[in-house]
Amino acid sequence: MEFFFAVLAFVCLLPCGLADFQGVALYAVKQSLQASDNQLRDWKPNMVNPCTWSNVMCDPSNNVISVTLSSMGLSGSLSPKVGTLKTLSTLTLSYNNLSGTIPDSLASLDNLISLQLSSNQLSGPIPQKLFQISQYNFSGNQLSCGRDLRHPCVAEANSEGSSNKTKVGVIVGVVGGLIGIILVGCVLFFICKSRITRYRREVYVDVAGEVDRTIAFGQLKRFAYRELQIATDNFCEKNVLGQGGFGKVYKGVLGDNTKVAVKRLTDYESPGGDAAFQREVEMISVAVHRNLLRLIGFCTTPTERLLVYPFMQNLSVAYRLRELKPGESIVDWPTRKRIALGTARGLEYLHEHCNPKIIHRDVKAANVLLDEDFEAVVGDFGLAKLVDVRKTNVTTQVRGTMGHIAPEYLSTGKSSERTDVFGYGIMLLELVTGQRAIDFSRLEEEDDVLLLDHVKKLQREKRLDAIVDKNLNKNYDIQEVEMMIQVALLCTQASPEERPAMSEVVRMLEGEGLAARWEEWQTVEVTRRQEHERMHRRFDWGDDSIHNQDAIELSGGR
To answer: What is the CA angle 392-398-399, rounded to 5?
Structure first.
C-alpha cells in the first residue's frame, strides 16, 4: 500500500519539478512512521509542495533542508526513501517509538549535519559514515557500532559493557546536538529579527486604526502549481468568478477545505524570474487594512504566475448591482453608503500610508469585493505595478477599463493617485445608479454613452430621482444621494490637480468640508461651460462651413 501511494503521488507530481520528488519521499516517510490521522495532516499527495508542510523547512530554492518530528508519539520505522532528500541537513526524530533499523540510505546524505534519533526503540547497526557528521545522538536505543552486533553502541548509563569509543561518541553527539540547537536558535533569532525590522519599516498604520491586526505579517504561502490545479479542478471554466485585464479568477477549494480565489495572471514576462516576482508580491502583501483584500499566497512556474486570495462570499459590487440571480437581494442604500466609505478608506491607505505608495489603476465596482458582512474590500491593488515591473522602458502600458480611466492617463500613459480618484468617482456613480460606466443603449434616447456625462446632464436639470437605481424602489435619502453625486463629480474633474485626495474624500463622505468644496467647483464649472459655449458659437458657421474649412487649413502650421 505504501508503494502504491508513493507511485500515485509520483505520477501526480511529475509536472511540478523539484518539490515533487521531495513530496513523494516525505509522504513515504509519513506512511512508514505510521502517523495517526491527527499527525502530519497536511502531508498529503495533493498538497504537493513539501515546503508548505508542517515540521518541514526549505531553503529559498524550495529544497528540503530540515525535518523535525520529535516527541510526536510516532511508531513504525524510518523509510529508506529519506535517503533521496539530498539537500537534507537536519533530521530529528527523538522521543518517539520508532523500531526497526537505521536505513543505510541515510549515509548517502552528504549535506546531513544533524541527526537526532535518541529515545526510540531502534535496533541493529549504525552505518559507520553517520559517525562522521558533526551532530548526532543515538542514545536510548539498542544499536550497535558497525556490523558487529555483539558490541552495543549505546547502552544504559551504568553499563560496564559500553566501549570507550561509544561513550565518547555519545557525549560528543549530545554536546554537539546542544551546540547545534543553540546555533540554529541564534540564526533563527537574527533572521526573525531582520524580517520583523524590515516589515516594521515598510508597514504604516493609519491614524483611524483600520489595520487588521489579526493578520500575521510574513506568513505568505508559496503554493505548488499542482495544488492550485487540483483546487480549481484544472482551472475549469465553470469555476471562473471573473475576468479582467490581468487574467481570470477561479474559485478553488484547498486540501483543508479552505475556499479561495485564484487569480491566474496573463501577459506576464519576467526577466528577473521568480525572485523579482516574489519581491513585488511580498511588497503588496504587507499592505494590510480591513478594506484591502488580503493575499494568502502565490505560485510561480516558468510559464505561470498565480495569486491566492480568500474567497469573498458576496462576490463583487458589480455583481450585486447588475448580475444578481433570481431570489438574490439587492444592495440597499445604507450598505451602498458603507461600501463607498470603506472603499475610500482602502484607497486612502494605499495612497497615503504605504511606502512606496500603491496606485491601483483600475478602480471600479468589479474590483471592490464584499465579505460576508458586505464590508467593502478593494481587490487587485498593486497588480498594475506587479505586472509592469517587467518593463525596462519608461512608458508603461495603460491598464484599466474604458469609462473608468482618467483622461490624462489615457492620453499620456502617466498615472498617479489622482488617477485612482477619478476611477473612484465613477464607482460612486455606479453605486448610485446601478449602471455601467459605458452603456451604448443610451444612444437610443440621448447622446451620452458615458455614465459621467449622463449624470452631469441630469444633475444640471435637477432630476436627481432619475439618476438613482430604480431597484432601490425609492428607499433612500435624497440628500445623501445628492451628497454622493457631488463627491463623485468632484473626483471626476478633468484636471487631476483639481481632484481631491482620498483622505479629503473620506472626510467629505463623513460630512466634513463638502459644502465649501462643492460651491467652489460650481463657480469654476459655470465659467468653464460658458467658455465652452462661446467657443462652440464661434466655430458654428452653418452653410459657410466649406469656405471656413479652407480658412482653417490655411491657418495650419507652416
So the answer is: 110
How far apart (Å, rounded) are the C-alpha atoms in residues 459 and 485? 8
Residues 226, 137, single domain; the answer is: no
Structural domain containing residue 258: 211-311
Catalytic pick among 362, 380, 420, 469: 362
Instruction: State the Cα–Cα distance between residues 48 and 465, nearest whole angstrom.
Output: 57
| Order of all β-strands in the sheet with 64-68 | 56-58, 64-68, 90-92, 114-116, 135-137
Which letter, b or e, does each residue of 95-121 get, where b requires 16 or more Cβ atoms within 10 Å of its Cβ?
bbebeeebbebbbebeebbbbbbbbbe
In a domain, 131, yes or no: yes
Can you give the pTM of this predicted structure? 0.57
| C-alpha span between 381 and 364 (Å, rounded) | 11
Looking up cell 480618484 gives 421
Question: Does 362 participate in catalysis according to the annotation?
Answer: yes
* Cis peptide upstream of residue 356 (ω within 30 degrees of 0): yes
Q: Could you tell me if 165 and 229 lie in one domain?
A: no
Residue 332 has pLDDT above 90, yes or no: yes
- Residues 297 and 330 occupy one common structural domain: no
**Residues 357-410: tens digit of each pLDDT:** 888 888 999 899 998 899 999 988 766 555 544 443 333 456 667 788 888 888
* 393 is a domain residue: yes
Contact of 358 with 287, CB cutoff 8 Å: yes
Residues 33 and 163 in one domain: yes
What's the Cα-to-Cα distance from 513 to each of 343, 416, 456, 507, 510, rounded to whole Å? 19, 23, 21, 7, 9
pLDDT in tens, 426-463: 999 999 999 898 888 776 666 678 889 889 888 888 88
Assess contact for 404 and 413: CB atoms under 8 A: no
Burial class (CB in 10 A: 0-12, 13-18, 19+), 201: exposed
